[in-house]
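A reminder before we start the practical. When you read a complex entry, don't treat the lines as separate problems. The point of joint prediction is that each chain is placed relative to the others, so the output describes one connected object in space. Small molecules and nucleic acid strands, if listed, are placed in the same frame. In the example below there are two entries. Take a minute to note the order of the lines before looking further.
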Amino acid sequence: MALTVTVFQRGDIRVVRVQGEVDLNSSPQLRAAILTGVGESTGIGVDLSDIQYMDSSGVATLVEGFKACTAKKLSFLLLSPSLPVMKVLKLARLDSLFRIEDTP
Amino acid sequence: MSDAAENIIDVKDLVVRYGDRTVLDGITLSIKRGETFVILGGSGCGKSTLLRNLCGLMRPQGGSIVIGGRDFTAMSDTERVEARKRMGMCFQGSALFGSMTVGDNVALPLREHTKLEESTIDIMVKIKLELVGLSGFEDYMPSELSGGMKKRAGLARAMAMDPEVIFYDEPSAGLDPVVGAGLDMLIRKMQLTFGLTSVVVTHEMESVKLIADRVCMLDKGRVIGMGTLDELRALDHPFVRQFFDRRPDEEGGDSSQYYLSITGDMR
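Here is the predicted structure of the whole assembly.
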């Protein structure tokens, strides 16, 4: 299944909404959407509520987003991560690294 | 859901020969998506040969191996390389490249087969090494690792591409019970998190009890039993009984046959 990426502004946060599967082929799409937006808002929120599958390239991409935002003192949020996302974050022991919030 | 859709691997009438010797003789079995399937059997019964055929490292002399709906045996070499990207192989001897660091060994399939940025690959490598308990060892050379650590590094490399299926050849052989149990737990955790299918050749009964959803037992190149461990234990087959009771082969035998074998007259 392909990945659909939608980017929009919600208040001070630039929201990157992704739907589908984040894998070796599609994670560069997510990476580009996150990293090109760093510095254009006070923070980035990645809406992961509609993700059916995420592999370790997706996790690494989120870590890269977190690192880039932290370096510029911006906030980086995961919005309503789905169960498959939470499972893989827990397996990688990274679930407590991210600030997780519900999608408004 | 039909059985065909549930199965990730369907093997039918598989025949493999080394020269005149038939090593696998009409193997038929199915492996379900998301299960941990263990191949058991005595030394030299064809377990590792079966594994190498399942992951496309060998071409059989007969039969079919359908993986993800496509017949592996009918694919061109290019198609097989493509299909193998969705599989991971954890070799008995780890098979790490001795001239590369542990991190580069794990990164190799990602660098070869994906368009991921090096910064993404770097994080993925560290995640995989953390999963197998080798966090911080990315700059070590394989020669600087113990046997157990090499096995775990080999597993990290097998997991590099987040495969659908991982094949393990004797994953816990030669490891102490604590490290071996840790590997078993990891196999289980990967199954539960990613729905990963694992095909495991092992002799370690403690490991089988912990990880196996189903077990297949081979003897002399044939399947002699398949099912849950309890179903297999209940079989009234002489080799199954001997295997589970850990009884050695009877000594002695036919002296005339032995004479013919040492004088080279027996073929």
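Discuss with your neighbour: Chain B has a mean pLDDT of 88. What might explain this?
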